[in-house]
Every structure is written in structure tokens, then in C-alpha cells.
Amino acid sequence: MAVADELRDRGAEVAFVGARGRVESELVPAAGYPIDLISVSGIDRRNPLRAATAAARAAAAVPAARRVLRARGADVVLGGGGFVAGPAGLAAVSLRLPLVLTEADSHLGLANRLLAARARRVCLAFPIPGRDGERYLVTGRPVPAAVMRADRARARERFGIPADVRCLLVMGGSQGARSINRAALAAFGGDADRSFHVLHLAGTRDYAELRDALAEAGPEDYTLLEYEPDLGDCLAACDLVLGRAGGSIFEVTAAGRPAVLVPYPHATADHQSANAAWMERAGAAIVIPDAGLDPGRLAAEVDGLLADGERLDRMAEASRRLARPDAAARVADEVLAAAQ
Question: What is the pTM of this model?
Fold first, then answer.
């Protein structure tokens, strides 16, 4: 979406290919872009039957993607990884359309590994050993401009957070990170002596459970949200972030926020641990393994950070140094160069 906005600002026509039943089927039209939906699903590598079914569905989606690209009169295709990008990228290659890829994590996902040799450029969020040379370009991960434009005072007014109070943002993700959601609620949901506000983005899966639990405790300084398509206000309002270590860490750095990261333990090639280590080495985050996440430890880490203003400031500055605010523009440059 960030690259699409950049391209549209430069006069390009942008359309999306997405999967039926996924969040993009709502977010993309809401942002003013057309979207064509194809039938694909993720590959469950733990279940051979489901994996085979998904692979067959992906193969069948290639002709559908070809029809979409022809109908749109596409000049170039940008792949963002994931199971939609595979069929769309193969369709682009078969039609001899230039292909540009983006990778948000510290290793190439399956679709990007399959397509990289056919791509004009592969734009990386992180340097990846063995992925260098002219084909590969480290751009950082594009983030929405709204993340960098959000106003702290206005965001705090929106969420009812006093200007002189510290705020912890708990990011449960669009679907929900259950271990983080439950640990955060147990650590902070009923603490009457807590000295900071909690802004908790729960995700759709866990929202009802957390809402019902909070209804019993009812702390006024605990704001629970189900979903926010734009993290700008949430990040602007907070002083510290608690969340996973996927591609959203680039939003965290763009906003210059320190973080407590709990990598998802089942991520492909454990890439979230590598993402988290990148922030930790820079001094911008502390890392808690998912297996070691409990309410007591979480409360101790967060309380200690939010009570130490100097350390928090140092971590925030380290986070800002990691940011790549021009990532969307650099990817857009590659897309337009490929189209020409």
C-alpha cells in the first residue's frame, strides 16, 4: 500500500491482485485502488495433504492471474511475497512482463525464492547473506506515510491518554497473537497501581475474549481496540511497543519507538527471531522468547523500561537510526524503471 501510494502520487495507475476472504479485499478498495481476487491459500507445511491442495490451487490460479494482467494492461508487476505473489509473479514471467519483488523479512520466503532468478530487482528489508549483487537491493521495508505523519497530541486525545502519562502499545496483530494478548491482559489488566496507560490492539480473533475479561476488571487506563488498519495513531500515542517481530518492526522504527519483542516461534526459518535480534543489537529492543513469556516477567520488563526515562530515550534514538523512511520511494523507483 505504501508503494502504491508513492506510485499513484507519481502518476502511475495501480491495481492489486489479492486472495478471496483476506483482509486486502476490504482495505484495498477502501484506499481507492481496484483489486482483482483469485482463489489461493497458504501452504501448510505441517500437513502434506493441505500443502498439496494449496499447491494445486496456486497452479490453477496462474491462468487467472494472466487474465487479470492482460485485462489491466499491466506494464510491470510488483510482488510482495506470500501465496498471492506466487501465481501473479509466474503469470508476469509467462507474459514477459518485468517483475520486481519485495521481501519484508530477514530471509526470502518461498514465493520470492522461486521467482528471484526471474525478477529484475529484489528489494530487501534486511541484508540477507548470499543475496547480493546487482539483482538485490536493500531498501528497507516500505511503511505507510501516515505512520511518520501522525501527530502525538491528536492521537492521545483520540484514545483519551493524558499528555503527561507514559503509554504501552500492545500489538496483537490483525488476527491476534494469543500468547502476547493473554500475558499483557494478565500483567496489566487489573493493576490498579500501574503508572502508565495501556493501548492494546488485540486483533479480531482474541478481541471478544479480552473485552469480556476487561469488563470485569474495568481499569479506565486500559484502552482495548479490535483492529486498526493504520498504526500511525497507535504508534504516535505510545512510548513503548510490545509485539511480535514480523515486518511491522519497520513501522515501529519509522515512528522511533523502543520495543519489547516476542518473536513468533513457528515463523518460517525462525525469521522473527532474526528480525528481533536486529533491533536488539542496535539497542532499540529487548527480546523475550515466546516460551519465556509470563505475566510476571512481562510486567517487570515493561515497568523497568517505562520508569527509566533515560534508557527509554536511548532506545528510541536507536530505533530512529534503524528507520528507512525512503523505502517506499526507492521501491517505486525500481518499479518505474522496470516499467520503462
Answer: 0.85
